[in-house]
Amino acid sequence: MANSVIEFRQVNKSFDETKVLDEIDFEIEAGKFYTLLGPSGCGKTTILRLIAGFADATSGDILFEGQKINELPANERQVNTVFQDYALFPHLNVFENVAFGLEIRKISKTEIKTAVNEALKLVHLSDYGNREISELSGGQQQRVAIARAIVNEPKVLLLDEPLSALDHKLRKEMQGELRDLQRRLGITFIFVTHDQEEALAMSDQIFVMNAGKILQSGSPVDIYDEPINHFVADFIGESNIVPGKMQRDYVVNFDGQDFSCVDAGMKPNEAVEVVIRPEDLDIVAVDTGQVNVTVDTQLFRGVDYQISAHDKMNNEWKINSIHKTSVGQIVGLAFEPEDIHIMRYHETEDDFDARLETYE
Ligand SMILES: Nc1ncnc2c1ncn2[C@@H]1O[C@H](COP(=O)(O)OP(=O)(O)OP(=O)(O)O)[C@@H](O)[C@H]1O
């Protein structure tokens, strides 16, 4: 990649006998918003710590703009980190917190003042320089932490679950602000979250992780529409995942019937998993859709109903619909061939658990 800023080559990290990163390979392109997404304990923070230089890889290479930086001390790396708990200095005011990194670099007072004011302006805190940290809301403290990181003009900003302490509404607002800030600054952001909605909303590129591995990387749309396996399909939004068998190109069998799909290139009779998103299903009269299901539960959510149902093979179906049904009712489900996504390779959570055990 011509514009690569960070690259991991077969990076492994173990603590004693426990492997927490397993052959991690990726390239990060300059100027984009990347997200590491995965459940708690999958190794996201460890990747950030390796990039920042707070921890060493057990094996493999870490490159910054094409140069190996495995041995480079943290303070010589052109990256800054925004931590989950902000890590602000409580005895310094807002201005002093942001200025701290510049002061230890012995930059002139005038330059510091200009840079700090510019950083505070970028995070919409221009009038807050004299405030004590204890006088700020959570969202404002988060902005100070971001200003303190960007004032150093890093090439890469690492953000470790920076929004997790905020309430739902503020969190949504900050997602938009961070996205805007990244675009305005044009520096690379590497953002860590376990919240799939946040990852889809903010990122240019997502790395979906589980159990120390990157399972899939791609744009939010790619990952949502073309999940590579069961874990990704399930983790990114809600999915109906039904076992099936590829009959031939463009024809898949599930629920005891053949369906047209847009997938080809698999072996005849290959076992597959069929994914259809709940919002792609329409509820229609019984026998007028492709699959009939019996409604098991129905929840009203304001904008729609979240319905769960089962088909004659006892596959579970989740449907988001504006149409009200009733428990026990048999309805038809209609969908288009392009709403069917076929996954040829699947690894269930049980498989993952089994793989995890091999680490121990
Ligand atoms: N210093 C350490 N010593 C031993 N094990 C560690 C250490 N740091 C992390 N781990 C383990 O490494 C694994 C990955 O941790 P990491 O913090 O990278 O996960 P994460 O995906 O960021 O999780 P979370 O979302 O909970 O922060 C976990 O099982 C964790 O317990």
What key phrases describe this protein's structure?
360 residues, 5-stranded antiparallel beta sheet, cell membrane, Rossmann fold, translocase, elongated, ABC_SmlMolc_Importer, OB fold (Dihydrolipoamide Acetyltransferase, E2P), alpha+beta, ATP-binding, 26% helix, 20 strands, 9 helices, Spermidine/putrescine import ATP-binding protein PotA
Shape: elongated
> How many independent structural domains?
3
List the secondary-structure elements in sequence, H or E: EEEHEEEHHHEHEHEEHHEEEEEEEEEEH
Gyration radius from CA atoms, angstroms: 24 Å
Query: Which structural class should the secondary elements be placed in?
Result: alpha+beta
Number of helices: 9
Count every beta strand, where a strand is a DSSP E run of 2 or more residues. 20
Strand numbers in spatial order across the main sheet = 6-7-8-3-9-10
| CATH domain class name of the largest domain | Alpha Beta
Please report which band the strand proportion falls in: under 5%, 5-15%, 15-25%, 25-35%, 35-45% or over 45%: 25-35%
Characterize the main sheet.
6 strands, mixed
- The level of helicity is 25-40%
GO cellular component, one term: ATP-binding cassette (ABC) transporter complex
Pfam family, one: TOBE_2
GO molecular function, one term: ABC-type putrescine transporter activity
Enzyme class: translocase
Give a brief rundown of this model.
This is Spermidine/putrescine import ATP-binding protein PotA. This protein is an alpha+beta fold. It has helices spanning 44-52, 94-103, 109-122, 138-150, 168-185, 196-202, 220-225, 230-235, 349-359; strands at 4-15, 18-29, 33-37, 59-64, 67-68, 79-82, 156-160, 188-193, 205-210, 213-218, 240-248, 251-254, 257-260, 271-276, 282-284, 291-300, 305-310, 316-321, 330-334, 341-343.
